[in-house]
Design goal:
This protein is an alpha/beta fold. It has 25 helices and 10 strands.
Amino acid sequence: MAQLEARELPLHKVFCSDYDFRIPDYQRPYAWQAEQAQQLLADLEEALLRGDGEPYFLGSLVLVKDSRAAEADVIDGQQRLTTLTILLAVMRDLAQQPDVVTNLVAMISEPGNTVLGLKAKPRLTLRPRDAGFFHQHIQTSGSIKTLLELNPHNLRTDAQRAVQANARALHTALSAWTDDQRLALCTLMGVQTFLVAVSTPDLDSAHRIFSVMNSRGLDLSPADIFKAQIIGEIDEQVSETYARRWEDAEESLGREEFSDLFMHIRMIFSGERARQELLKEFQTQVLVDYKGGRAKEFVDEVLVPYAEASAMIRDKTYAAGDGSPQVNAWFRRLLQLDNNDWWPAALWALRSHGDGPVWLGSFFRLLERLAASMFVRRIYTTPRVLRFAELLTELNAGLGLEAPAFQLTEAERTETLARLDGDVYYELRTRRFILLRLDELVAEDDIVATYDAPRITVEHVLPQNPGPQSQWRADFTVDQRKEWTHRLANLVLLSRTKNSQVQNLDFAEKKERYLRRGVVTFPLTTQVLGQVTWTPEHLEKRQVELLGLLAEEWRL
């Protein structure tokens, strides 16, 4: 068996002369979108704001690499390595300190060392079609400005357009940071951010490792294997019809969501957290009930109905008479969460009570309360999944709306309120969700809040850094600014990007030049526009009111 090495490495040991990363020509092109690049930065920023010194784990690499040489073919990890290189390049070109620039340049490209026999070259080489572009516009110092000025329609490949889009997204975000903040991020990335590099000199061995670590990287997904098994058991006279029904269901959801559907179905049937790979557990927990000539029933009674329910949730298209709009509104709220662990319970409800919009409205109110509380409290994956597994077990036992797992304990309610009453702005993943929920709650009956603006941002009214002669410094003491700046009462929603030139204006002028122009029917922000002044006393009153609305809505 080929020698296998697995090493946990900080990024400064990943982007160094120990590794000469190359993307083999047979790999798919770079494909991460701006949303994924922004999420990477948001995750790093969240780790930075926590300031607890804890290591931040970015995932793993699978490499074909001889331990005696730097050359490393990347089997898994291309998207992450490429995006990290783009991020380093953006920070390099924004940095003002010469030593920081030098250090970042050395992480992106090997400067060369005659004594050690090292040639100057990029640390990461993309597929041949995109390697030159990436070297010229990312790995060359000062190249970001030129890259952002290029017409994307003139770029040769989708990978090049993705590189430019992600560089623009990261540059836009980091341009609003101070030099000190960007330096802190560089330090976090260099010494506290880790990857696990799994290396083997044998290509076949690397692919086996990749298969175990990332089944989605395989050309053949578990869903494909289940299809072959199920359709293969159906009589030839109707197998084509059932194959088409299967394919229609997959097409309606898309390949990724369709694959997720099998994990949701497994969870519904078992009421347990996954402990083994899906290929094994789906066989023993779901398909075992459809042996002996019952393959058609699986397609008719399980796959197609759950696929239709899944599309209904995603597209918010439930329609069953009075109460349907309210059900779709619950879908919209749940879909704003950063996980889909609630999805199996939602599918169960639609499959079991699809003709009862009033019952479903009550069900999804309970489900959203539970999911939102765990989201606000940042409950991590395992206990979150266990809670929903417990709920499904109770639902399958017939407990319905009375299922105990729906209920929040006193400690859970207290912690949820405490989180809501804290510095919400620093909670990057939850702040927009919380403010959108509040926006609904403060809306008048005849006002429909808008959630489909192309960009929704969370902004401060009292700015983070008011000028030395600002009225803000007269109205708020240092302690009062520290107390209120990042809490709910001082935050609003805008449908525009940040504007650093006007964010720090005094209240009256800021309303006219910044806030008013950024509103797309956000009642929460309209409330602020109706205020003549913005003082600590007003914030204290507003905080109590807003917390009260959330406490009442979520029965905290």
